[in-house]
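User: Is it possible to get a 3D structure for a protein together with its bound compound? The compound here is flavin-adenine dinucleotide. I've pasted both below.
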Amino acid sequence: MDGGNVPGRRADAGRRAILKGMAALVGAASAAAPARAAATERAAPDGARAPTGAASYDVIVIGGGFAGLVAARDCSLRGMRVLLIEARDRIGGRTATSAFQGHRIELGGTWIHWEQAHVWTEITRYGLALSETPGATPDRMAWLSRGRLIEKSGEEGFALLSDGMQRYCDVDGDLAHSVFPRSPEPLHAVDQVRPFDRMTLNDRLAQIGLAPEIEDLVAPNFTINAHRDPGSASFAEQLHWWARGDFNLRRLFDCSGHFKFADGTGALANAIFADGSFHFLPGTPVRAVRQARGLATVSVDGGAYSAGAVICALPVNLLKGIRFEPGLDPRKLAASRAGVTGTGSKTYVHIRQKVGAWLACAPYPSPITLAFTEQERDDGTILCAFSAGDSLNTGDRDALQAALRGLLPGAEVVDSVSYSWTADPYALGTWAFYRPGQLTDGTFEALRRAEGVVHFAGGDIAAHWRGFIDGALETGIATARIVHDALRRG
Ligand SMILES: Cc1cc2nc3c(=O)[nH]c(=O)nc-3n(C[C@H](O)[C@H](O)[C@H](O)COP(=O)(O)OP(=O)(O)OC[C@H]3O[C@@H](n4cnc5c(N)ncnc54)[C@H](O)[C@@H]3O)c2cc1C
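Assistant: Yes, that's possible. Here is the predicted structure of the complex:
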């Protein structure tokens, strides 16, 4: 893609290094997913770049992740003139299909499920296929408890985990149904949610007094959802995950770690992109959003664009870095400064051993919180390993091997790959999981609220699958409808 005349390509050296690393990783996938490059080439559907200067649109969408992509598509299909501005040279945001050891991998968002209504509609719409991760239904399980490695069959280990998780989440004798009776409307029973939103994940663990070896099996499985120190995250968020999984651990595992796009998340991003008809400005970070008298002006380096509405589809953690005039609701800013909790890592590791369908976990702050088989192969196994917060230096091969050996004695690392979304200036974190209080103290509602003609979308502020691809799609679809109706009303 020729980005030569695109404004706003001046990144500082640190940013450039991180994004270059990403470009190399994503580039590695182009053989496996050739459609990706073609889709971004089609960036400006009429063959022209969006003109700089005083160009005017009905809607400007900021951010080409799934929320922004689907918002741009839907707005354009409703007849609006749309400009999508994206800081990176690619679409997809916190999803990126790549390749590792000849195997298609996802550096970011991966697993999806038919229970996720928005993503499944898109899968139906574009006829996309599924593939599976073997470690989601393990034959063997292991976990670290107080320095001891406990090993079980998959069936026995999962039954213990499922039972422990059920005790952890059953706050009302009805598996928490009274807390989230309508999962897509998380504040429907806000008075029931509030007390649990004041608690951390650790507070709840301390409350129920599980046997130590069960506690050490259960704790990693909610820690990984927060992707950070479980003392920093809201227990109500975990209850909402549980409700999304139909109050059942097997279903939640299926939704969050089992089924993925056979052709990668890039296949969906490309399909949405190709379906819409909008101007696209890649490699262009937005610096400021001003609004006056019902018109918004979006500034990038060397230019500005105006529109009757803006859809800001950025991660919450980035809002603090954009100049909004008038200023944003202070609760949005406070949430952005505090940051959502997801800041851990995801690493693919090729090991020499053949371990079959295997899953292992360890409580925080163990360097690896959860690891499982991603691909069984003739020359060993590819594992997918998650760490919470910064508990593992993924670039340190020896540290990675040592951490893995804690769960899989004798493991020999052949190669590994990871990408730091937390260091990435256009993500500053992984997925959204809220801090105590943020769901019920007005923060969540403030993050979702439009301010004048500026509307907000993104997986981080979704009502239902918050922190997921489905949540990003949910907000993009809903916001496109709201903006269309508002502009029609004038
Ligand atoms: C490691 C990891 C694993 C995950 N696993 C899963 C999973 O298995 N299943 C699942 O459903 N979800 C998963 N997620 C979460 C999921 O990927 C995200 O919730 C979802 O992709 C967010 O989409 P979005 O459009 O809201 O935000 P983003 O994808 O972050 O899109 C925002 C876009 O805005 C752009 N941008 C940033 N700043 C600017 C600026 N100043 N100007 C213009 N553009 C800008 C960014 O470059 C980006 O393209 C995972 C995420 C990570 C990181």
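Confidence is low (pLDDT under 50) at residues 1-15, 28-54. Residues 469-489 form the longest helix (21 residues).
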